[in-house]
Every structure is written in structure tokens, then in C-alpha cells.
Specification:
The complex is a heterodimer. By secondary structure, chain A is an all-alpha fold. Helix content of chain A is 77%, strand content 0%. Chain A starts with a helix and ends with a helix. In chain A, 38% of the residues are buried. The chains are: A mainly alpha, B alpha/beta. At the A-B interface, helix 2, helix 6 and helix 13 of A face helix 1 and helix 3 of B.
Chain lengths: 261, 250
């Protein structure tokens, strides 16, 4: 426990590196493309368009409401899935550095999750545009947004630490996780209402952390009925659990990683 | 300043890429336990380096020189034994490892310095001096991919030596840039030495080692072959090399 604290202090000492890694990531991702930063907004909008064309007839509701529903699901899902998917390569990709210079290795997965957070915050812009057009008025529940985003960050970081560490020892983890994400996405009520699921499955949904986060996110934005203590408690417990597991997987293996890179 | 106590490092030997689930399963079904081939890159190394001392590390390829430097800089934790360093360690190993081609010289200075653990303020304090020393002010906002390899090396050297270390680790980097810059970097390293900074220097160039070091460690197969006065160890090492070559010729 004491040593664990030392590692946290080391990561804090390298916060400038963390900042540089995040800003490099953002710069590089948009420098090369013609539309540059606009892609942050276009990307979720285009995905929304696809989902809308295919599913709006099925699940109905008004245009505005369905758009908000899907859009909020998409960008929160993208935050989590991008963060953890890219992070799965975090140690492997930086093997050159890790092999040559001492640094607290956890800054790499941490930087990936952090830059996903930055993208998420930018992609709130198109979301709020949609909300504006839908005629939805925001309520005080929006104040809970930082807490919900914090939970997703913590949950993602835990998974990122776990997956990136395991991937060093067995590369298959990356592919397995990829497939897992695909299934996970369909189970997370992003573009369909949970009410269409059989009742048994609806009960099982409470075991899906992302379901709680997406619901809480929607609660913050427009659907205060979703603001239940169940979602908050489950969401918080999953976040803490994920982080503790991820940290201990990383911490136990951090000195062995170098021999497998 | 630096103490190593019975330091041993064990590597796993990877003969081929066998880290997929499939090959694990196949081996498991064949009843094979995973072969664990290991070897000791360093064995029972004990040494002290004090303030102001500079230790040259020599030996054939694969003797464990780089592994020793990695232990000192904290990249590798020893499998056995203890490594204790007192103060800030700055590595001049593979200087450009932390560079990014697509970023400008300026951005790379900030990135690379933060890799060495600097805070933002510390970097800003040193930025101007590093640029001056590198003599690259005119190119500082050009992406690194347009630099020549000599320019990249100059930039890296300038950043790493701004670190104000207590222990400086140098792995064959005195061959940086053109003759004039080489001289300049050598002077800078000598200035470090005069300031009382402990230096670990790995090189195959015995003249450079004689120039810089007052103590030499001769490593062979991960073990200490000889440790002592520079000229004594080097002449014995050269004699040994000579013997091996002549025996090889027969």
C-alpha cells in the first residue's frame, strides 16, 4: 500500500509528460486531415445519421428525442471504447521508451484515457447542438455531469490498465478485447430503448456498467426520470472496482513488463 | 553516490514469438510445459561510484554493459541484489528515443524534457540554454523529420545535459554530430566531471575511456572480470583482446 502510494507520487511528478502526450495526441490526430478539428463534431453526427436512418422507424418517438437518445449513447460509448481500445496498445507501442528511460509506465494508458476525455468534451458540442434543436430544456441535473464523467473516466482507466498490462504478456488480449467491445456495444442500449429487451435480460443489464453510465448521462441531459439511486450506486461501485483491479494488475506486474516487451 | 550490492539480472530468452494463446494451447495439449529459457545478463555485481568519480565500463558485446546502465537508471529492477542511487540520474542512452518526427524542435524539447521527469517550469528555465547549445535556433519551429541525423543528435544531447544530474550515464554518445560539436560535447561532459558529478561511461573506444575515466570496470559474460585503475584494466583488456585475436588467427 505504501509503495503503491509512491508510484502514484511518481506519476504525479511526471504530470508534464502526461500533458505533453495528450496534447501531442490531439495535435497529431487532426493536423493531417483537411477538415481538421471539425471531425470531432462530424464523426458522431455521421454515426447518428446512420443509426437514425436504420433504426428510427423501428423505435419511433419524435426526431429530436430519438436523436438525443442515440447521440448521447454514441459519444459516451465512444469515450469509453476508444479510451480502452487504444490503451490496450499503450505499453507495446511505447516499448522503445520504456526500454531505455525510466518512467512510471502508467502514464501511457493514463494519457490515452485522458485524451479520450478531451475528445469527449469536444464532442459535447454537437450533442448540445442536437439538444438545442430538439427543444429540450436542460434542468439542474446537468450539474451532476462532472460526477458521471468522472465515473466513466475512472472505470475506463481501470480497464485500460488491466488490458494494457495483460496485452504485454499475451498479445491475444488485444483481439479478444476488440470482439468483447463489439458485443458490449450492442448490449449497452445505445440506439434502442431498454424496454424492447426481454425482462430477464433487462434485469441482467444492471450488471453492465456502461448501461448505468449511459443512463446517468441521459439523466443529466434530459431524462431526469433516469436519475435513480440504483444507477448512481451501481455506477460508482463499478468505477471503484474497475480502478482497484486495474491498478493492482498494473502494480503487481510493472517491473516485469520490461522483460516481455 | 551509487552503490550496487550483488546485483544480478535474469532475462528470459525468447527464441521465437510464442506469446499467442494458440501456441500456449497447442503446447499445453502436447503436454509441454512452457520452456523457460533464461540467462543471467548480470551476476553478483557489487561496486561503488562516489561523487566526482567517473567509471568506464568496457567489455565485449553482450557482456552486460547496457543492462548495467539500465539497472542504474531504474529501467530494470535487479532480479537479485540491490541498486541504490543517491540523487538524480540522467541517461544519455539512445538520446533520440523520446523524439517524435512530426513535432517541431521546440515541441520535441518540451516532450523529451518531460520524459526525463522535468516539470513545466524547469523546462522553461532551461529551454533557451538548450536551444543555444544545440545551435538549432533557426530550425526550432521545423518538424523533426526535416532534420539531419546530426541535428537530431545535437538537440537530444542539449536537452539531456541540461538535466543537472548527480549521476550521468553515457552510452557511446560522444560520437554526436560533426567534429566541432563532438569537441563541444566532450567539454561539457568534462565540465560535469569537474563539478563533482559521478559519471558512468560505456564505450568501445579505449582512448575516450582513458580521457574521461579514473576507474574502469571490465565486464565479461555478466560478471566482473576486473575493476580498478583505468590504465591497468585497459592494458590488460587490450592484451586479452590481442591474445584472442591471435589465437583466433591460428
Amino acid at each position: 500500500m505504501v509503495n503503491s502510494f509512491e508510484e502514484v507520487k511518481e506519476i504525479f511528478r511526471y504530470r508534464e509528460l502526461l500533458r505533453n502526450l495528450v496534447s501531442r495526441d490531439i495535435k497529431k490526430r487532426y493536423k493531417r486531415s483537411a477538415l481538421g478539428f471539425l471531425w470531432v463534431m462530424l464523426d458522431p453526427l455521421l454515426m447518428l445519421l446512420i443509426f437514425y436512418v436504420i433504426f428510427s422507424g423501428l423505435f419511433g418517438g419524435s426526431v429530436g428525442k430519438y436523436s438525443t437518445y442515440v447521440m448521447s449513447g454514441i459519444i459516451l460509448w465512444q469515450f469509453f471504447s476508444q479510451a480502452t481500445k487504444v490503451a490496450s496498445f499503450a505499453f507495446l507501442q511505447n516499448r522503445n521508451l520504456i526500454n531505455k528511460i525510466y518512467l512510471p509506465k502508467a502514464v501511457f494508458p493514463l494519457s490515452v484515457v485522458s485524451s479520450s476525455l478531451v475528445h469527449f468534451i469536444f464532442s459535447l458540442i454537437p450533442l448540445f447542438i442536437i439538444i438545442l434543436f430538439s427543444g429540450i430544456t436542460l434542468s439542474f441535473s446537468i450539474l451532476l455531469l462532472p460526477y458521471v464523467v468522472g465515473l466513466v473516466f475512472m472505470f475506463s482507466l481501470g480497464i485500460a490498465l488491466t488490458v494494457s498490462t495483460l496485452a504485454v504478456f499475451m498479445h491475444d488480449v488485444i483481439y479478444i478485447y476488440d470482439v468483447l467491445l463489439l458485443g458490449w456495444m450492442y448490449l449497452s442500449a445505445i440506439f434502442y430503448p431498454i424496454s424492447i429487451l426481454p425482462e430477464k435480460l433487462q434485469v441482467l443489464m444492471s450488471l453492465n456498467p456502461l448501461y448505468h453510465y449511459i443512463s446517468l448521462f441521459r439523466a443529466c441531459l434530459y431524462d431526469t426520470a433516469l436519475l435513480t439511486s440504483g444507477h448512481i450506486v451501481y455506477g460508482s461501485v463499478f468505477a471503484v472496482l474497475s480502478f482497484l483491479i486495474g491498478w493492482s494488475v498494473y502494480y503487481r506486474n510493472k517491473d516485469r513488463i520490461i522483460f516481455y516487451l | 553516490m551509487l552503490t550496487l550490492q550483488d546485483v544480478s539480472v535474469q532475462y528470459r530468452l525468447i527464441t521465437e514469438r510464442k506469446r499467442t494463446f494458440q501456441s500456449h494451447m497447442i503446447n499445453y495439449m502436447k503436454g509441454k510445459r512452457i520452456e523457460k529459457k533464461t540467462f543471467w545478463a548480470l551476476r553478483d555485481i557489487s561496486l561503488d561510484v562516489h561523487k566526482g568519480e567517473s567509471l568506464g565500463i568496457i567489455g565485449p558485446n553482450g557482456a552486460g554493459k547496457s543492462t548495467l546502465l539500465k539497472v542504474v537508471s531504474g529501467v530494470i529492477k535487479p532480479t537479485k541484489g540491490r541498486a541504490h542511487t543517491n540523487g538524480k540520474v540522467a541517461p544519455l542512452i539512445e538520446l533520440a528515443a523520446g523524439f517524435d518526427d512530426e513535432l517541431t524542435g521546440r515541441e520535441n524539447i518540451f516532450l523529451n524534457a518531460s520524459i526525463l521527469g522535468f516539470s513545466r517550469r524547469e523546462i522553461e528555465e532551461r529551454y533557451e540554454r538548450a536551444v543555444d547549445f544545440s545551435e538549432l535556433r533557426d530550425f526550432i519551429d521545423t518538424p523533426l523529420k526535416n532534420y539531419s541525423s546530426g541535428m537530431v543528435a545535437r538537440l537530444a544531447f542539449s536537452i539531456a545535459t541540461e538535466a543537472n544530474p548527480d549521476i550521468l550515464i553515457i552510452d557511446e554518445v560522444l560520437s554526436v554530430g560533426d567534429a566541432r560539436f563532438k569537441q563541444k560535447s566532450k567539454e561539457r561532459i568534462l565540465a560535469f566531471k569537474n563539478r563533482g558529478i559521478a559519471i558512468l561511461f560505456v564505450s568501445h573506444d579505449m582512448e575516450q575511456v582513458k580521457d574521461l575515466c579514473n576507474k574502469v570496470l571490465w565486464l565479461d559474460h555478466g560478471k566482473i572480470k576486473k575493476l580498478g585503475d583505468t590504465h591497468e584494466v585497459i592494458s590488460e583488456y587490450e592484451l586479452h583482446q590481442f591474445d584472442r585475436e591471435t589465437v583466433g588467427l591460428k
